[in-house]
Amino acid sequence: MLQNGDKGQMIMGFAPRAGSTGFAIGLAFVLAGLLTACNPVRDIAVSTGFGAKEPEPAQFVRESRRGDGGYLPVGVRAPDRPTRALPKADVEALTKSIDARRQANEAAGATARSMGAETNARPVPKPPALPAE
Fold it and tell me: pLDDT tens across 61-103, in order?
C-alpha cells in the first residue's frame, strides 16, 4: 500500500491481511513439524525404501542390552545382585595384602626422597661465562 508523506514523499507500508497471516502461521507449523523428530515425510520415505535405513547397533551394544528391552517400573524393588559379601577370612587376607602394598609404596617413596635430598644437597653448577666482545 502506498501513502503520501508530509513532503510529497511516497511511503510504502505493509498491512497484513487475515488470510496471509493465517497462511504464514500455518506454514510455520508445517515447517516446524517437518524439522522435528516426528517427520512424516521421512517416515514414508524410509518405509517405501527411499530413505536412509537405521544402522544396526554394534555388537557390544547388543550384548549390553537387556533381553526383554523393558525397564524397571516405578515403585518396584530392584532384584538382588549376584555379588555376596566376602567371608571374614578373605577380608582379612585382602586387608593384609593392601597393608603390605602400602608399606612397599611408603618404602619406595622414602628411597626417592632420600635420592632427591642427595641431589639437592650438591651445589648447582654455574653456567659458563660468555666471552666478552
Answer: 888 776 666 677 788 887 787 888 889 999 999 999 999 999 9
Residue type at 79 in one-letter notation: P
The CA-CA-CA angle for residues 74, 75, 81, to 5°, reads 90
**b/e sequence 95-125, b meaning 16+ C-beta within 10 Å:** eeeeeeeeeeeeeeeeeeeeeeeeeeeeeee
Mean pLDDT value across residues 106-116:
90
For the chain, report the end-to-end CA distance as a whole number of angstroms: 87
| Cα of 85 vs its chain's centroid, Å | 34
Q: How far apart are CA 20 and CA 121, in angstroms?
A: 88
What pLDDT sits at residue 132?
84
Give the 3-state secondary structure of residue 67.
Answer: coil
> What whole-number distance in Å separates Cα of residue 83 and Cα of residue 85?
7
